[in-house]
């Protein structure tokens, strides 16, 4: 009973959080038909600033951390990010009417981390007086980057496989069509369809490996090359900014510019981003309604499922290395979140065939409110109940 009362109290306070307030405000103002618009250049600048700040925070925390204590939670964060995407790929993608690339992109967004939800979680932990490791926030990129890269790789493998299957099917059809048009003796069939000198028509349908490779971007054997996909993902603007921030935080001493510039601006810029995300969520709602029942179900259940996975792994780290109760709760919170900073621009570039209305709509309209209003108080309360404060 005490757990339920504590949860309801925390839930009420989360409904008044500025992060959720600006998100809902964006939805409302768009629904009222306001012509308010944030220029795309400003949106990109805000995203860049937030990513650099998150990277700097993580890098500085890693530099000062006891790496032996951080190793297991960081590993579990990476595992969680990858597992979340794979769960979406092999469960959500099987739902009726769900395109595989849309499902993978959605899972990638839910596997990546929301900076706003993490800040809200840290705020609640501080308000509850729960101690957590200074480097716990640095677990953000350890979950975020593997989730996004895994989603892009999984989508690329699927797309290339579809291209290969389509090519081979066309090749088989053309070869059979040639045989139907040009009867040949059984002994000479290999010459007719095997790239011999029997005619130019077969030349258009034969030679499978090289033609498929140029059509799909794969190798001549039809295998997908994983490393080029990973490299291209890491070279994307969003992940590049995040990795740059981490590198600068680890290798340099950016504390002065961080404290005087990046840190004070963070929450203000984040509030503007949430306002933009709210307006975008409303604008994409009509397209989301086509398969809304499945996206709504996923977006409501996924934050709790992903949070429980991370919470369980965090408990293992707690008993193995002394990872704090607050750290376990924060790990669960970032796993329950869906990305609002790095995810959308990375997935737009990495999986261009996916429908942003599907994955961004599910995240901003349902996933983020569920994570902030429900998952934060739930996992903080669960950590207190099982491990104390």
Query: From the alpha-carbon coordinates, what is the Rg to the nearest angstrom?
Result: 24 Å
Helix fraction?
over 70%
Report the span from N to C terminus.
18 Å
Total number of strands: 0
List the secondary-structure elements in sequence, H or E: HHHHHHHHHHHHHHHHHH
Oligomer: single chain
The global form is globular
| The CATH C-level class name | Mainly Alpha
The fold-level CATH name is Na+/H+ antiporter like fold
What profile does the largest beta sheet have? none
Quick check: average pLDDT?
A: 81
What count of domains describes the coordinates? 1
Poorly predicted residue ranges = 184-222
Please give the CATH architecture: Up-down Bundle
Instruction: Give me the number of helical elements.
Output: 18
How is this structure best described in words?
This protein has 389 residues and is an all-alpha fold. The chain has a single domain (2-387), classed as Up-down Bundle (Na+/H+ antiporter like fold), CATH 1.20.1530. It is 78% helix and 0% strand. It has helices spanning 2-15, 18-31, 40-64, 67-90, 100-111, 115-128, 139-181, 189-193, 200-205, 208-216, 226-234, 237-251, 255-283, 285-288, 292-321, 325-336, 343-350, 356-387. Helix 6 (115-128) packs parallel to helix 18 and helix 15 (292-321) packs antiparallel against helix 16 (325-336). It is globular, with a radius of gyration of 24 Å. The two termini are 18 Å apart. 46% of the residues are buried.
